[in-house]
Amino acid sequence: MAGYLVTGGCGFIGRHLTAALLECGHSVTVLDDLSSGNPASLPPAARLEKGCVTDLDRLAELAEATDGVFHLAAIASIAAVEANRDRAHAVNAGGAANAVAAATRSHVPLVLISSAAVYGDTGPGAVSETHPCAPLSAYGADKLEGERHALDAAASGLSATIVRPFNVYGPGQDAGSPYAGVISRFIAAALAGTPLRVDGDGSQSRDFIFIDDLIRLLSAAMERRQPGVLVVNGCTGTATSVAALAQEIGRICGGDIRIEPGPGKSGGVQCSLGNPDRAEDLFGFRAEIPLQDGLQRTVAWQRGSAFQ
What we know:
Layout: E1 3-7, H1 12-23, E2 27-32, E3 47-50, H2 56-64, E4 68-71, H3 78-83, H4 85-106, E5 110-113, H5 138-153, E6 159-165, E7 167-169, H6 182-192, E8 196-199, E9 205-206, E10 208-210, H7 211-222, E11 228-234, E12 240-241, H8 242-253, E13 259-262, E14 271-272, H9 277-283, H10 291-306
Parallel strand pairs: 1-2, 1-4, 2-3, 4-5, 5-6, 6-11, 7-10, 8-13, 9-14
Antiparallel strand pairs: 9-12
């Protein structure tokens, strides 16, 4: 069994990853500044270290005592990024640079969580990892800068896999958080009997990947130990329009679900769809949870948590 460091382990993805690693018999140290994560949701067996990834010395010290680093810590809220651009850049780009430096120093493998936001608006086709990146947001630009730090460190012997998740959803995602995705917000509205607001005509589409599938990919990526840096999409290869998503969530939740139009948004990504072939070629990974099943599991969790 191994010991791993998970930065941002109190966040949505981090909590699921930590639990999965512990269930496999590994030990896990979580580094989190608790600015958005909930420490109460961490499994008791995890060791929590309060601190920020902007502290290279602390990060390097923790990495040296582990067998691998999963770097998830980030400020992903658009509002938070815009409100304090310097802070967001220091955490998102600078934190990635520090994780790369720490893993390189300690000669341990790194799984670096990037984002599909690095691609920008690529049109309706499925985008592969070789597609030129043109991020539309400061968050996406910071994530791309973090990737470049890892690629530059390949010459120093770093073994790293950069994972670009698309739209991740599942149980445990707080619908009231500024980090919440459209699925958790739609479910919360449907369960509360309030209208589901669909901006524009609802034709904008996303590649929704269930949290359990993404965790399997991250775990598989950590098993890679060869020097060098790889980039893989964390996706399903299936696009779903926001309008169709709202209809399906309404059907699962039952009752008289109303869908109302919201204002159209300009300048955003119309279609975000990933090509999953490289992850399958490298790790034998394919997403297994169909959207309908994932939504049913997420609705069941949110319905239960609403009455706790």
